[in-house]
Specification:
With 298 residues, this protein is of the alpha/beta class. It has a single domain, classed as Alpha-Beta Barrel (TIM Barrel), CATH 3.20.20.140. The chain is 46% helix and 10% strand. It has an 8-stranded parallel β-sheet with strand order 1-2-3-4-5-6-7-8. Helix 6 packs parallel to helix 8. The chain starts with a strand and ends in a 7-residue tail after the last helix.
């Protein structure tokens, strides 16, 4: 079992995440981890390296892919990339990682992509146009995409569901523009997070057209918080060659049940609900294909 969508933050960040974010101009992150207007606890967890690995063991996850966060400041991307790269290098048998970039700073993001494999990363992202204030049709993103293409690096894209309830931290994304980018850069593997921002359920025709391309994958990250209860079976059955397992750990996905972050419950829920004939592709094979250079043989 490979968890293709997790996050990790160095221990010094967890000591006072709001203060750390404020010092770096990370206003969106500060709002997520700081005091909430509704008085509820932040959903963000901060496991150290040992707990991260212990939670993987408890969940039966052999490998976790750490996604970069969509930082507003490119200096923050570099800072956290160093910590994540160190964690992955120390546990290369269990941990893979994507490099964080800020596409609004296209030249700098492209340089990060060009150096990513040397730094131990196997992909780029997660990116978020609503938070990072970039446009998919603009030069900054296109420089990043071209660099990913030349380096054979997959790109993970956050998509926010367009309908449904409002919640703390929800920021809209331009899903249609992201889909058009995947059509334009057909040699680049795209991993669209959160069931294509629930487009699998809300816009089935667009999802079907997109998933007919061999460069499009989507993950199940944060499914218990944002998606319909039948998401596992419906999405994986409809698009068995595109679906990838991801949890969004260490987000607290079951806040009414658990005070601390944990990885096991969503892993068990997915195992119970994904049809047996699609399990191997969903939990292992599809993400391996997404991570391959497009010119490599499977």
């Amino acid at each position: 079992m490979i968890d293709a969508h997790t996050h990790f933050y160095p221990e010094y960040v967890s000591e006072n995440p709001s203060k750390w974010a404020a010092e770096r101009g990370e206003t969106y992150w500060a709002a997520l981890v700081g005091p909430r207007p509704d008085g509820k606890r932040s959903l963000q967890g901060f496991p150290d390296e040992k707990k991260f690995l212990d939670d993987m063991d408890a969940a039966g996850v052999e490998r976790a892919v750490i996604q970069g966060w969509y930082w507003e400041n490119p200096d923050t991307c570099d800072e956290i990339n160093r910590a994540v790269s160190s964690f992955a290098a120390g546990h290369s048998d269990r941990i893979s990682a994507f490099a964080a970039v800020q596409p609004a700073f296209g030249d700098r993001a492209a340089q990060t992509a060009k150096r990513a494999r040397e730094a131990g990363f196997c992909g780029i992202g997660e990116i978020h146009d609503g938070v990072q204030k970039f446009k998919y049709g603009a030069g900054g993103f296109e420089k990043l995409a071209e660099a990913c293409l030349s380096e054979g690096l997959p790109l993970c894209v956050h998509l926010t569901e367009r309908g449904g309830r409002n919640y703390h931290g929800k920021v809209a994304t331009d899903s249609l523009a992201a889909f058009e980018a995947a059509k334009k850069f057909r040699g680049l593997n795209f991993i669209f997070a959160h069931w294509l921002g629930n487009a699998l359920f809300d816009d089935a025709a667009a999802a079907a057209e997109l998933c007919s391309q061999n460069n499009v994958f989507f993950d199940s990250a944060a499914s218990p918080l944002i998606s319909p209860h039948n998401a596992w079976e419906a999405a994986v059955s409809a698009f068995p060659d595109s679906a990838v397992y991801g949890s969004d750990y260490p987000l607290r996905l079951y806040p009414k049940k658990f005070i601390a972050e944990e990885m096991k419950t969503i892993a068990d829920e997915s195992r119970e609900n994904v049809p047996r004939k699609h399990k191997k592709a969903f939990f292992e094979e599809n993400i391996k294909i997404a991570l391959k250079r497009r010119n490599e043989k499977s």
